[in-house]
Amino acid sequence: MGDVLVVGSAGFIGSVLVRTLESRGHRVHGLQRGGADGPGVILGDITKPPVPVGDVSYDCVFHLASLTPMVRDAGVLRSVNVEGARNLFEAVRDRTDAFVYASGLGAYGSVDGVISESTPYRPDTEFAQIRQEAHQYLEDGCRGAGIRFSAVMFGDVYGPGGWFRDMLVKRIRAGTMMLPAGGRYRKAFLHVEDAAGIMSAVLNAGLERPAYVAASPQSVTFREFVWHTADALGVRRPRGVPAFAARLVLGKDLTKLLCTPTAVSGEAVSEIYQLKHADYGSGLDSSISALEGS
Ligand SMILES: NC(=O)c1ccc[n+]([C@@H]2O[C@H](COP(=O)([O-])OP(=O)(O)OC[C@H]3O[C@@H](n4cnc5c(N)ncnc54)[C@H](OP(=O)(O)O)[C@@H]3O)[C@@H](O)[C@H]2O)c1
Predict the structure, then answer these.
(1) 53 alpha carbon – ligand 1 mean position (Å)
(2) Which of 5, 6, 9, 13 to mutate for ligand 1's pocket (most ligand atoms within 8 Å of CB)?
(3) Which residues contact 53 (CB under 8 A, 6 or more apart)?
(4) Which of 80, 135, 143, 198 has its CA 20 to 30 A from that of 292?
């Protein structure tokens, strides 16, 4: 197994991906903005070219560095998600055989039915449009440079960390969590171990497809997901709040992304990877146990 680079390696999904790839025998290099220096760690900021990427050639670069839709300033979002992607691509274009880009189901916009790899991209939030611009740039750039490319289009990734810990569990515990529009929309969730497992499987499969829709096909409303979390924590179930009130706190893009119903078929991913946590209930219980033990 050769060298791979994980960009955004200190993040929620990136940190689990590093461990997953290491356990499969890859020599993993991680590019991160901050955190502890150590073996395999490259400290760098993708908005500041030239981006440091070490001095080896990579079997694959996994790009997970991004800002979240909580950031409402389009200029700041663009500097990381579009300019950052360009800077990173320039740094690795002669140094890698393959490139895997992490994106989200927001790229498809509001879809009446099940999202699959053949669903057209129709982002209807500024956040997803900016992400899509980077996606297109990277896909075209890789094609032109003879680099294999796949995008992994994640549903809502939960687990012991990230937004799940900081925005959901902490707020549910504090009694400040509200369900935008009552939470009565179906969402497509994915456990973080499966998110990392799918990215690793995409590399193993030789980046066969230009995109993989990555979420559990299980149908669950946001309210069921949140209420299960509250019950597992042994605290009061959050109540609903109208979407216009949620927009004041979360911003319009995050509220829209959250309240847009999503469902996936999961067929393409099932050809290369078997989900460990297809059921959100057991995935949530193990995530909460891990958080309580940490
Ligand atoms: N989690 C989900 O539910 C979900 C769903 C759909 C798509 N995705 C996508 O999956 C990817 C990873 O998500 P995540 O949940 O792991 O997010 P995350 O925890 O916020 O990780 C993103 C990482 O990117 C880093 N980063 C931000 N700006 C940077 C810069 N200028 N230079 C270098 N690194 C920078 C952040 O570093 P700092 O820690 O220093 O800020 C952070 O560690 C993102 O592209 C995200 O959009 C995630």
Answers:
(1) 18
(2) 13
(3) 5, 29, 31, 42, 44, 88, 91, 92, 95
(4) 198
pLDDT level of residue 39 (50, 70, 90 thresholds): confident
Instruction: Name 170's Cβ contacts closer than 8 Å, sequence gap at least 6.
Output: none
**72 belongs to a structural domain:** yes
Instruction: Give me the domain span that covers residue 68.
Output: 3-154+191-214+265-272
Ligand 1 atom 21: the closest Cα is on which residue? Answer: 11
pLDDT, position 71? 86
Distance CA 42, CA 36 (A): 10
Instruction: Determine if ligand 1 sits within 6 Å of the CB of residue 84.
Output: yes
- C-alpha dist (Å) from residue 139 to 10, 116, 213: 24, 18, 16
Residue 208 corresponds to which tokens in the numbers above? 């066969």
Weakest-pLDDT range from 19-28, 37-46, 269-278: 37-46
Instruction: Report which DSSP code applies to 120.
Output: P
Total of domains in the chain: 1
Place of tokens 């073996």: 39
Collapse the DSSP code of 67 into the 3-class scheme (helix H, G, I; strand E, B; otherwise coil) and give the result. coil
Kindly indicate the confidence band of residue 134, based on its pLDDT and cuts at 50, 70 and 90.
very high
Ligand 1 pocket check for 203: Cβ under 6 Å: no
Instruction: Check residue 252 and give its pLDDT.
Output: 87
Pairing, β 148-154 against β 186-187: unpaired
Q: How much distance in Å is there from the Cα of 12 to the middle of ligand 1?
A: 7
Strand pairing report for 148-154 and 98-104: parallel
Q: Is 266 in the pocket of ligand 1 (CB under 6 A)?
A: no
User: What's the CATH code of the domain at 47?
Assistant: 3.40.50.720
